[in-house]
Amino acid sequence: MSHTNQNAAAAGRRATFRRGFTLVELLVVIAIISTLIGLLLPAVQSSREAARRCGCSNHVAQIGLGLHSYEFAHEAFPAGVSGDTGPIRNLPEGHHVGWMVQILPFMEETRLVRHFTAADGVYAPSNRLVREARINWLLCPSSPTEPLRTGADGNTVAVTSYAGCHNDAEAPIDTDNRGILFLESRIRFCDIADGSSNTLLIGERLGSEADLGWASGTRATLRNTSLLERRALTSRGDAPAPEDPLVVGGFGSEHPGFVIVGMADGSVSAVAFDVSPTLLRQLGDRADGELPSRD
Asked: Which residues does 272 contact at the CB level (< 8 Å), separation at least 6?
């Protein structure tokens, strides 16, 4: 081989060698990519949470519209729970026909209405299939709670992420509550003396053990404004249920920093976890006559 050809071959080998990466260069590229992923991941998670919040707000607005449609047709909001005497216990005993069952005709769920027999009570075998029906607009996109679960009575039930406001303070669900949806309630707009824009109608709730499902007018679908519950950071399952069946509990959310609520005027708002307890209580009372707290 001539000297010229040898030089050309050597140059080709050097060129081929230069097209590769050294180990150090490869590690630098990996480090840069990892840094970029670390910077972008929070933005992606934030975007996903924003989308979930938007979906949850839409569900609250839909439920509020169903309640207003019921009020327009019957000249009063539905009873939070009907067919029983108080106080209501969080046990699968009694009729416990909840307000969510009553608004089904106004939410395009007539198929469920046709299969539900209110006279038999929520826990009757005749209503089992309805209790098992998963309804998407009753579920918050951020909730980790399984939509179908074994209820307190041992049967499969579909749960909800939302609840109506029965009272401003912790108290059993009964006929003398100060919210809008409670035992045998029939609240009209003229009964909301504090103004519909200042009175909480519905809001998010956390999933809990011993849940009786979306059809039951118990703590499964009714809460009060005594406090806002938030999930423990180490917990991804259902929260423990109160041992006392008369304890109802407050609203709660999986969203960071706030609970999405629907007011009686149809508006949707976000109430921060650090809201003044006095103001929170006032939101749950339809006619306390007090000026809004500035605490």
From this structure: 257, 258
What DSSP assignment string belongs to 166-235? EESSS--B-TT-SSSS-BT----GGG-TT-GGGSEEEEE---BTT---TTBSSTTTEEEEEEEEE--TT-
- Please provide the size of the chain in residues: 295
Residues facing 82 on adjacent strands: 97
- CB count within 10 Å of CB 221 equals 30
Structure-block tokens of residue 104: 């089904």
What pairing do the DSSP bridges indicate for beta strands 162-167 and 222-230?
parallel
Are 222 and 164 in contact by the 8 Å Cβ rule? The answer is yes
Cα separation, 52 vs 33, in Å, equals: 28
Measure Cα distances from 23 to 13, 16, 31 in Å: 19, 17, 12
What is the distance between the terminal CA atoms of the chain, rounded to a whole angstrom? 94
**Per-residue pLDDT tens digits for 235-293:** 555 667 778 999 999 999 989 889 999 999 999 999 999 999 999 999 999 999 988 77
Strand segments (E) across 64-140 = 81-82, 97-98
